[in-house]
Amino acid sequence: MVYNLLKGKKGLIFGALNKQSIAWQVALKSYEEGAEIILTNAPFALRLGDTKILAEKINAEIISCDVTNLDDIENLIKKTLEIFGGKFDFLLHSIGMSPNVRKGIPYDHTNYSNFLKTLDVSALSFHKIMQTCRNYDAINNWGSIVALSYIAAQRTLDRYNDMADAKAILESIARSFGYIYGKEKNIRINTISQSPTRTKAGSGVDGLESLIDFTEKMSPLGNATAEECANYCITLFSDLTKKVTMQNLFHDGGFSSMGMSEKAIRQYEKSFEENS
Ligand code: NAI
């Protein structure tokens, strides 16, 4: 079902690597809902990923940008303004990477240069992008900015490692910048805290399959898929959510409010029976 919720709007989308990517689904839905899109990703991702396939499908230009590099971000925003012929209306930050997670280095043996890289790519990049957008006055009044987060920002989850700290900073940046951009330009900034999802970034986390099974059993509505996450993003980009800002919005089938579910108890009881 298409509602034309983004008719006439223009959006910049970070992080569509392949069709599993949450950003891929967001770009597709945004296009279906009438938006004009520009896609961006890191140079390595543009070499190895499928972003070009998506760009052809949705008639989008691609601009390369490593989000740790301020010159790249400045170039991205300037080119985006050129291609769109003016300001744009929404932006999706869908970026995460931890060298410690990738290399299997545990949190209590962390490598600090890796840790800094995790924070730079996954959290500070959000600040860098928004500060550059503001410097260039690139986003229309009443525009909307969304970044993707995870519940590890509030609750400790085994093996999520330094990404938990990155997500806590990311959510804090959304509030701090949301205040500034809100009072100046009525631009809203929110994070969506998404269920565990099978993607390239997700699969980097050791034990993802067990986590997906656990949260599926714990959540009354079940895990949220990437496509469902995209639907939620569309509502936040649309004019229907103009006064929602500085929030971390859980999109997790209810997991974040649960303590224990019937399905999880049953699974736990089964393991007792098997071990007795
Ligand atoms: P993904 O692997 O498809 O997307 C991550 C993106 O980050 C990739 O496109 C990658 O190229 C990009 N990226 C990495 N380093 C970059 C750099 N230096 N410059 C520019 N881009 C860079 O995975 P997914 O899951 O779609 O991740 C998107 C967001 O969703 C991330 O913030 C992730 O933490 C978040 N998220 C994912 C969950 C999951 O279970 N997959 C759950 C909750 C949140």
Structure description:
- The protein has a single domain, classed as NAD(P)-binding Rossmann-like Domain (Rossmann fold, 3-Layer(aba) Sandwich), CATH 3.40.50.
- The chain is built from 11 helices and 7 strands.
- It has helices spanning 22-32, 43-48, 51-58, 70-84, 99-102, 112-135, 163-185, 200-203, 208-218, 226-237, 262-275; strands at 10-14, 36-41, 61-64, 88-93, 139-149, 188-194, 248-251.
- It has a 7-stranded parallel sheet, with helices on both faces.
- The protein starts with 9 loop residues before the first strand and ends with a helix.
- The relative contact order is 0.14.
- The mean pLDDT is 97.
- The structure holds 1,4-dihydronicotinamide adenine dinucleotide (NAI).
- Residues 15, 17, 21-23, 41-42, 45, 66-68, 94-97, 121, 148-150, 194, 196-197, 199-202 line the site of 1,4-dihydronicotinamide adenine dinucleotide.
- The site of 1,4-dihydronicotinamide adenine dinucleotide (NAI) has 26 residues, from helix 1, strand 5 and helix 8.
For this entry, give a set of tags:
single chain, 276 residues, alpha/beta, Rossmann fold, seven-stranded parallel beta sheet, 48% helix, binds 1,4-dihydronicotinamide adenine dinucleotide
The number of helical runs is 11
CATH architecture: 3-Layer(aba) Sandwich
| Share of residues in strands | 15-25%
Strand element count: 7
Q: What small-molecule ligands were found?
A: 1,4-dihydronicotinamide adenine dinucleotide
**First CA to last CA: what distance?**
51 Å
Mean pLDDT: 97
Radius of gyration: 19 Å
Overall form: globular
CATH superfamily: NAD(P)-binding Rossmann-like Domain
The major β-sheet equals: 7 strands, parallel
Order of helices and strands: EHEHHEHEHHEHEHHHEH
